[in-house]
Design brief:
The protein has 442 residues and is an alpha/beta fold. The chain has 13 helices and 24 strands. The structure holds pyridoxal-5'-phosphate.
Length: 442
């Protein structure tokens, strides 16, 4: 059994996270429950910062808040000295309300609305990552009206796509994000942005994929981007101060995943940048990265209670838990795979192979197919590992199921950072039109 972060099996034979017995966490906070290992998150933040510091190059590590955005998380990120990426008014508002320094917030997205742009400009955030031609005009127009000059990066699609073990080179990059390099759209964007009075171009951004283990994809993207920046320098006498290489660093969901340690990712990126920028006689840029999953993914464990068991002789045994695709849509969306244990029987050997079903009205609502566990009984606590990224942030209210609570655990203490959604919360925004109020006899 692979235990992430501070998790261990305690003297009672129970799973313990952050020094607290998982069974006690469920007693105190109920289930399903997202448990975040705070020490692990802080350690990941520090690994990024220390690894970049060791490179001797200027840098900024921006946590991609899409992975897991709450006010407490923004606080933690601030305490660790990282910057923050947001992609919506909601993520921005969460950060601002948590007191996150606006100058360290960067705004992403392929369709920032005028309202979102206004909110960000009024807050004086650090930069916008411009995604398309429409946005150039829109952002410049609103900034001019407000008499502001805005720092911007241009998001480039370098024609490299990477996921897990492989990367591919694509000609004309077919993506909803960014300006394509091969067709010349990226260079055209530079020309237009440099002409806009309210936009201050500070550099370029690219993001090549997610759950990447093979650093060759980053090296290939950096080479292409270096070539591009050299051409831009020749054409426009413009030299980028910032180069943002995106996020996507892989984590260990199951034994099949073999991510590199963070220092190794950082080392290969900084080395590739030094080599490429030397090759093209460009000054070293300030390097920005925006990791999300690798900061919070392995920190998260979701605790569920087993509610029903269905054994189909000769076929399979289903165990159904009190959550599912509403708190973790990734298995249904991407066939994502997870490992789990019975938290109250963590020291016991596996006795049977079962499949873990969620409680939603969808046959596809399966969290794990075929997992070996000790004998499963109603009332057992199932702990699914590695749910810290893109679980809470992607959770829904399908079937009007309330979203679980989130706790941060550290040194034997648990703090509630997001309350469980109540039934009252679920109808809080509902309205019955007046014409229907009296249409049904009481
Ligand atoms: N930056 C951008 C532009 C992204 O689209 C994403 C993820 O989709 C990230 C950063 C974070 O990626 P990850 O969580 O895989 O590190």
């Amino acid at each position: 059994m692979y235990l992430h972060g501070t998790s261990r099996i305690n003297e009672q034979g129970h799973l313990e996270i952050g020094g607290i017995d998982a069974v006690d966490l469920v007693k105190q906070f109920g289930s399903p429950l997202y448990v975040m290992d705070e020490a692990y998150i802080r350690n990941q933040c520090r690994l990024y910062v220390e690894s970049f510091r060791a490179s001797g190059l200027p840098f900024q590590v921006a946590y991609a808040s899409k992975a897991f955005s709450t006010m407490a998380m923004c606080r933690l990120v601030q305490e660790e000295g990282l910057s923050l990426d947001v992609v919506s008014a909601g993520e921005l508002y969460t950060a601002l309300k948590a007191g996150f320094p606006p100058e360290k917030i960067h705004f992403h997205g392929n369709n920032k609305t005028p309202d979102e742009i206004e909110l960000a400009l009024d807050a004086d955030i650090g930069s916008f990552v411009i995604d398309n031609f429409t946005e150039i005009t829109l952002l410049d127009g609103i900034a001019q009206q407000k008499g502001k000059k805005v720092n911007v990066l241009i998001r480039v699609t370098p024609g490299i796509e990477a996921h897990t073990h492989e990367y591919i080179q694509t000609g004309q990059a077919d993506s909803k994000f960014g300006f394509d390099l091969a067709s010349g759209q990226a260079a055209e964007a530079v020309r237009i942005v440099l002409d806009k009075p309210a936009l201050n171009l500070i550099g370029f951004h690219c993001h090549i994929g997610s759950q990447i283990f093979d650093v060759a994809g980053f090296a290939a993207a950096i080479q292409r981007m270096g070539q591009f920046m050299k051409e831009i320098k020749e054409q426009f006498q413009y030299e980028a101060r910032v180069f943002n290489v995106g996020g996507g660093f892989g984590i260990r969901y199951t034994s099949e995943d073999q991510p590199l340690p963070i220092p190794a990712y950082v080392e290969s990126i900084t080395q590739a940048i030094k080599t490429t920028f030397d090759q093209f006689s460009l000054a070293y840029p300030e390097i920005w990265v925006e990791p999300g999953r690798s900061i919070v993914g392995e920190a998260g464990t979701t605790l569920y209670t087993v509610g029903t068991i269905k054994h189909i002789p000769g076929v399979r045994k289903y165990i159904a838990v009190d959550g599912g695709m509403t708190d973790n849509p990734r298995p249904a969306l991407y066939q994502a795979r997870y490992e789990a244990v019975l938290a109250n029987k963590a020291a016991q050997a596996a006795r049977e192979v079962v499949s873990v079903a969620g409680k939603c009205c969808e046959s596809g609502d399966m969290l794990i197919w075929d997992i070996a566990l000790p004998e499963v009984e109603v009332g057992d606590i199932l702990a699914v590992f590695c749910t810290g990224a893109y679980n809470y942030s992607m959770a829904s209210n399908y079937n009007r199921i309330g979203r679980p609570a989130v706790v941060f655990v550290k040194d034997g203490k648990a703090d509630l950072v997001v309350e469980r959604e109540s039934l009252e919360d679920l109808i809080r925004l509902d309205r019955i039109p007046a014409r229907m109020l009296y249409s049904v006899a009481p």
